[in-house]
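Take a look at the protein record below and tell me what you see:
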Amino acid sequence: MSTGFNYTTYVCAGSMILVADEVSGADRQDGLDALLYAQTVASLKCPDVSAFDDWVHANKMAIRTLGGALYSDTHIISPAGLLGSFTLSELMPRIVGQQVPAAALRSLIASLERLSRQDPASPSNELLRRHSVQQDRWIRLQVGVMSAGTRMTVFTIAFESGEPVTDSLATQRFIHEKTNTNLSVSGYQALVEREDYDLSRATIISLLESRRLEQIVELF
């Protein structure tokens, strides 16, 4: 889905990724494959959904093994300014703040709003929920922006909701006091050099197999 802010949005397993229109088709696919691979590796290594730090570390290390040069790292506990309840659209400005271009933030919110208007059983909603919600209460969601040169800014958001997620993730309203004050955010920026990724591309495609078609979906 082109959001009108020069970005196209993809649901990539448990993440929402905004890809700038300036990114070439080849770089776009490489970047999305890399992000899907990193999520898959981290989830296999760290199946305990409550082990946030371990999962985040495994995710970052997987990106690094693909040639991604990590050049920024942030970790936030309970972003300031949250009121009694919040949706993901209301949470995002607190998290990404000044870390992404203003157009990317507007695009992300527009994409969440578009997702909230879709049937909860739509392919995008089903895919995102399956990979970002566990046991109906543990949320681990990635949001990211990919720009030219396969430069990526990625945030992982995780918390335990005191109430079950009964609808789509985009429409759910979370009660702040029932998240057990455990909302954590970890972010990184990475540059995936094409020359380095060339050495991994065939292996990643082989390892992911059908996941590349099933778990990377453009949001319409």
